[in-house]
Amino acid sequence: MNWYVPSDLEEALLLRETYGEDATVHAGGTFLGILMNQGLIAPAGLLSLGKVAELRNVAVVDGELRLGAMVTHREVERHPQVRAGWPMLPRAFHAVASPRVRTVATIGGVLADADYASDPPAALSALGARAVLRGPRGERTVSIEDLILGYYTTCIEPDELLVEVGVPAAGDAVYRKFTTRSSEDRPCVTVAAAVAPDRRVSVVVGACSERLQRFDDLCAVDAAELRDGGCRAEIAEGYGARIRAISDVRGSAGYRRRVCAVEVRRALEELSP
Amino acid sequence: VTVDPRARGAVRYSVDADMPGELHGALVRSTVAHGVVRSIDVSALHRDVAVLLPEDVADLPPYGCQIADQPVLAGERVRFVGEPVAALAAPTAAAARAAAQAVVVEYEELPAVLDVLEAVGEDAPLLHPNVAVSASDAAYFGIRPVAGTNICHRFRIRHGDVEAGFAEADVVAEATYRTPSAAHAAMEPHTSVARFTDAGRLEVITGTQTPFNVRMELAALFGLDEEDVRVVAPAMGGSFGAKTFMRQEPVVAALARKVGRPVKLVLDRGEEFVTLNRHPSVVQVRLGATGDGDLVAKAVSCWADTGAYADCGPGVAQKMGFAAPGPYRIPNCWVDAHAVYTNAPPNGAFRGYGQMQSIWASERAMDALAAKLDMSPLRLRRRNVIGDGDGYATGETMHDTCFEELLERVAAAVDYEREPRGKGLALMMKGMQTPSRAAIAIEREGDGYVVRCATTEMGQGARRSLALLAAEQLDCAPEQVRVPDPDTDRVPYDTRTTSSRSTYMMGRALVMACQALREDGQRGFGSISNDGGLDPDTGQGVASTHWHQAAAAAWLDVDDETGVLDLHRLHCAVYAGRVVNEPGAALQNEGSMSMGLGTALFEAIDFNEGQVTNANLSDYNLPTAEDVAALTHELVEREGAAVHGLGETALPPVPPAIGNALASHGIELDELPMVPERILEAIDRRGGADATPRDRRAEVPRT
């Protein structure tokens, strides 16, 4: 197996362009390692981003949080600026697996893996985050919902790298992870709810099917209305009725829909007590 | 400061063992649950890969510790998904595994049976037309196959007149309880390395709890004298019953014979899920009492799904059966326990050895009966709990009992009497291997001693306990006592390191050996046996010379909207008699309770047409540190009491204690694991006419 270890972003992009799908991108390796150990994939090469310092930056630019693709879950959890301005993100990233995993797992990795049973995607989506993709045709940005297209499938082209995640200034936001087995289990249902600074309400449900789900028409209320139990219940029931859900080891489709309604209501209660 | 050798990385585990010049093995496994092998195409293999095919092992008879039913490689017939059909040896493990992928096997599928009750139905395919009881010493208890059926052992207890008993009963509770298959999930997988020496001896280094059973069975398999088989059993990175009797040893030895070189095989995690699992079970209980709450009759049918090969399933079914009465005085008690073949991977010994399945049913039934009597579950147990001098359903007179005290302790731990709501209790009794033998030798070595015995180390701290006991007897430091890996060439015979018997049996033999050494000056030998056994047709006799005893109490709340359970406390009290190694004993309790918690709440192997669908530790979930925060336990000692084994004792009472706590909220569950979805379904049923789920399967035959 070929192991490519670029030392800067320019070299990384060049290697990506050269090898494309012949060199699977390796970030933290927590997910890739499982797939390889189980024999589900056998990459001809690996493109490791471990030495690309530019991808490890955390900065706030014009009120937007910029997280390099190689920023670890643990860094998101602990970074003072993230904690101060986007406190829901540390809570969502803290919900992932165990400290040993979070110390190496990256934000770019968890988005590019597009595993439906993950915590960060819904949280980032509810905050209106965008993923920055760079390749030979330049740079483009996509929303998190548009990034993840299906099971383990993203819109990232074989010559592109996910280099950064931008999160706009946030208002109040909550993240709820619902598990049915051990405390380190992957989620059965996740709900992220946020009130943006412009008072727009977002509710994003993850882990129920191959893509994130949000029903903005149900959330087209003034944030102040969320203080009303009837309004919250209406949104919650709407999500429960419309959500598409799969059955897996963590719960059946019917159970997920039922829990989804409960968890959306609880998220809104937490958001606006 | 003494640092645990495990923490220092100083332990050489079974997987670390190598032999010079070894090749690495891999197995080609069946992809169908039941079928005929039409062809095995090995033409794609590289020439440095050696292959072992069914014709290479045609001279080897079927083996098995209780029923001689298992071939080294499936010949014409495969009976479960994952059954080895061919084996390969290559210079590296990776090359062997890659080669296994290149072998093409064609099957003609046959109808498979994947449910224990369907397997005893009239139309079920017969998996083993001729069931031959094994010559191994593990087949000691009168195995009763039922000819022309998939039942490979039937055990009965006939105590009193059960129908007359039910006629006396004012109240009868009746229900069917189920448990699924589960994985032992030891950190270290199954592993062996084997060679035939120039002198024709077979030498095997293997992770096993049963070195002498492996020696005996390998000798029989290869037509050798037992003295010409040497089994060395290094420390295991966990076992929990998974490494009892023969697992991968026969195929590794057969590969070594074929290639004329040592061969090592290490299974991967996925293979662990098709190697040996816990028996899924169906247990039907009928329990009757007078209006005052005196138990008068109990009838139990146990159905243990032993998978495609019996392994020790007959023994597990028998222990399920003789635990089924529970630690209560019941004048009329009939039990029918069965080990049944299906097309699942083999099921065998698993921490608790059938007691968990049996006690899940009988302790849930106690609370169902209490509800019908409108009596506190604590009072019902107090009124009927067995004590010293009472007769058990096997006819034996109980001695050294502690059930009443254990019950009171766990009830007090959750303040049960003040507020029983949200709380559940369970009692459990478990027999120890009876009859069995243990022997041990101890010799002077430098300024200390060396202990020679077959007790294996699997993380339970057996070596530490032996060193502590010897040091106490010989008035020296535990560090002066060396306990090397068991080696059948060098240690005296011992039945096996199972059944939580080692500290009790080997400990007493060691005391004798130390006394002999003090007299001799250089060396001492001690041996001990316990005698007894049951008539398999009546269940009368001595089930156990020594009962393992425990109680558990759970206190919890439930989220009525999601079915998620909030465990405030789970407490176990275990009768230890006398504690030898306090930290080791505490760890055994904690480990048993953690496994009990996983069993209760989320562990189950899932199958699709006989194939395991969650053969990894992400989809098969185990408890983690945060899950066990509410667990507490205590070891109950008594002045002058004997040492009691406690390796498994705290596991079985955990699921029914939690189930009974749910029942106190009106949430009735009859099947494990109690995942939130099942709890929510039970909440939906709550208070209805049918709060207890109806048996969803066919009416069960009674033999």
Helix count of chain B, per DSSP? Answer: 16
Helix content of chain A: 25-40%
Per DSSP E runs of 2 or more residues, the count of β-strands of chain B stands at: 27
Q: Greatest chain-chain interface?
A: A-B, 19 and 23 residues
Helix-strand category of chain B: alpha+beta
Cα(first) to Cα(last) distance of chain A is 55 Å
Largest sheet of chain A: 5 strands, antiparallel
Averaging pLDDT over every residue of chain B, what do you get? 95
Estimate what percentage of residues of chain A fall within beta strands: 15-25%
What's the total number of strands of chain A? 14
Overall shape of chain B: globular
Which sequence of strands runs across the widest sheet of chain A? 4-5-10-6-7
| Uncertain parts of chain A | none
Structural write-up:
The complex is a heterodimer of chains A (273) and B (703). Chain A has helices at 9-19, 30-37, 73-78, 80-85, 88-94, 99-102, 107-113, 120-126, 144-147, 229-242, 253-271; strands spanning 2-4, 23-26, 45-48, 58-61, 64-68, 130-135, 138-143, 148-150, 153-154, 161-167, 173-178, 189-195, 201-206, 213-214. Chain A is 34% helix and 24% strand. Chain A contains eleven helices and 14 strands. With 273 residues, chain A is α+β, with helices and mostly antiparallel strands. By secondary structure, chain B is α+β, with helices and mostly antiparallel strands. In chain B, 25% of the residues lie in helices and 25% in strands. Chain B contains 16 helices and 27 strands. In chain B, strands 3-5-1-12-9-10-11 form a seven-stranded mixed sheet, sandwiched between helices. In chain B, α8 (313-323) runs parallel beside α9, α9 (355-373) packs parallel to α15 and α14 crosses α15 (654-664). Chain B starts with a helix and ends in an 18-residue tail after the last helix. In chain B, 59% of the residues are buried. Residues 694-703 of chain B have low confidence and may be disordered.
